[in-house]
Design brief:
Elements: E1 2-7, H1 11-21, E2 27-31, E3 43-46, H2 48-56, H3 60-64, E4 68-71, E5 91-96, H4 97-110, E6 114-117, E7 121-126, E8 131-135, E9 140-148, H5 155-160, E10 166-167, E11 172-179, H6 184-194, E12 202-205, E13 210-217, H7 230-241, E14 248-257, E15 260-262, E16 267-268, E17 271-273, E18 279-280, H8 288-308, H9 318-340, H10 345-357, H11 361-372, E19 410-414, E20 428-432, E21 442-445, E22 451-454, H12 458-469
Helix pairs in contact: 1-4, 1-8, 8-9
Length: 475
């Protein structure tokens, strides 16, 4: 009997398993693929918010060793606007997706999660006491909860009959890493010419003679699980550029569509959905992996609280009420970005207008904060603007704030020296630090780093501790 079975050991599933293990939840992760992903799979961008979450769990340095930092500007529809001064020190981290999965899986296993590969879910049955997960070979597993993190074609979502409305894919894009025989100067000149009208086209150096290639494709594949061929790339390059640049020796080839869909519900009884199982969208802005990892951190402590028995009645439901609107906003901004990539005269005119508007720091900052998820504000009721937002890594008398969040617990940061969280000490830490770099007297942070309360009165703090962390423990 497990507490939680997770279907899918991608970034979302692995991160969720680790978050649950911080609270001693018994976790089994099922992955249908018998082996990890190939080492040569596309580079993804870790955004500011995702890196903050990794820093909160003491993981960021592991990722920085394997990635390349790049400026945070130009993330919306690839419009080349530099980051405003307030975000000038921020960066994105380009890193191979298999490395992200490997590091998160290793972290989950270090914390005690079990991972079983070659195990595909074929059936789900739930009752008042738990969930029975049926594997493709007939084995039946029993768990208190099941979370489907099994991707866009989620078996768990389909078995539950959850609607997945949206738009089907209308355009394919080819992506890969290949060697090219043409001179670099010739390639650069052709790319500069093509990108004047096609913002989707990418042919950029990625090491010695290796190029990262992204190509719009007129044909829409019925099966994107089947990778394209080298000939597909050569034909499409000749159609767009008039030459295939002598591409050969692919390291990996893939295709993706621009389907945009959002699950109608994230929770059905004891079964929940997260990551691509709950939402899919075009890769504009590189938000998909980040959205799933952030789902996992939002859900992890809430599901653990439910299992540990101290969760307030509606706590687990706040996962959907908070994360569903976030995904809806991501779907909408990717729709807008895809439209801005069009070569049609109207879309190009709108793109020119938006480029002018992004010269305004306020517009530029708003769009960057949207893409990188640092602009998210959950609705926690009326209060200061900081309420419901994430808190950045402020300085303390001793160390940094994020170093205090590694165990996934709540945190009261008190500059007054008058507050206590004694009744919740098994779930919430208290730091009294009059010199903390805050402009508020005290605040309550959830385990995901969002500000749940701001004030200085003990009774108000107690009320909000009970709202998020249940009743105080008996004396």
């Amino acid at each position: 009997m497990f507490d939680v079975v997770i279907a899918g050991c991608g970034p979302t599933g692995a991160m969720l398993a680790a978050e649950l293990r911080l609270h001693d939840v018994r976790v089994l992760v099922l992955e249908k693929e018998p082996e990890p992903m190939s080492s040569y799979v596309r580079i993804v961008s870790l955004h500011i918010r995702s890196m903050e979450l990794l820093a909160m769990r003491g993981l960021l340095d592991r990722f920085l060793e394997h990635g390349r930092r790049r400026p945070v500007g130009g993330v919306f529809a690839a419009i080349p606007a530099p980051a405003p001064e307030s975000l000038a020190s921020a960066y994105l981290l380009g890193i191979p997706q298999p490395v992200v999965v490997r590091l998160l899986e290793e972290h989950a296993i270090e914390l005690g999660a079990q991972v079983r590969r070659g195990c595909a879910v074929s059936g789900v049955e739930q009752d008042d006491e738990g969930v029975t997960v049926v594997l493709a070979g007939g084995e039946r597993l029993r768990s208190r909860h099941l979370v489907g993190c099994d991707g866009a074609r989620s078996t768990v979502r389909k078995l539950l009959g959850v609607g997945f409305p949206g738009e089907p894919s209308r355009n394919d894009t080819l992506m890969g890493e290949l060697e090219a025989g043409a001179p670099r100067e010739e390639i650069a000149a052709a790319v500069s010419r093509i990108r004047q009208t096609s913002k989707v086209f990418i042919f950029e150096p990625f090491g010695d003679k290796i190029y990262r290639v992204v190509l719009p494709c007129e044909d829409v594949s019925e099966d994107r699980a089947e990778p394209p061929t080298l000939e597909d790339f050569q034909q499409q390059l000749r159609a767009i550029a008039g030459t295939d640049f002598g591409v050969h020796s692919p390291r990996w080839l893939s295709r993706f569509g621009d389907a945009t869909r959002l699950a109608e519900r994230y929770r059905i009884g004891r079964v929940l959905l997260a990551g691509d199982a709950a939402h899919i969208h075009p890769p504009a802005g590189g938000q998909g992996l980040n959205l799933g990892v952030q789902d996992a951190v939002n859900l992890g402590w809430k599901l653990a609280a439910q299992i540990r028995g101290w969760a307030p009645d509606i706590l687990l439901d706040t996962y959907e009420t908070e994360r569903h609107p976030v995904a809806e906003d991501v779907l909408n901004n990717t729709r807008a970005q895809v439209a801005l990539h069009s070569a049609e005269p109207g879309a190009r005119a709108v793109r020119r207008l938006l480029t002018e508007l992004m010269d305004l720091d306020e517009v530029n900052r708003h769009l960057i904060e949207k893409i990188t998820a640092i602009g998210i504000r959950y609705d926690f009721g009326t209060g200061p603007d900081l309420l419901g937002r994430r808190l950045h890594d402020v300085g303390l008398t001793r160390g940094r704030l994020y170093d205090q969040l590694r165990q996934g617990r709540g945190l009261v940061l008190d500059r007054t020296g008058r507050l206590t969280a004694e009744g919740w000490s098994d779930r919430v830490d208290l730091i009294t630090d009059p010199a903390a770099a805050l402009d508020v007297p005290a605040l309550l942070l959830r385990p995901d780093g969002h500000v749940a309360w701001i004030g200085e009165r003990q009774q108000d703090l107690d009320d909000h501790l009970a709202r998020w962390f249940g009743e105080p423990a008996a004396a």
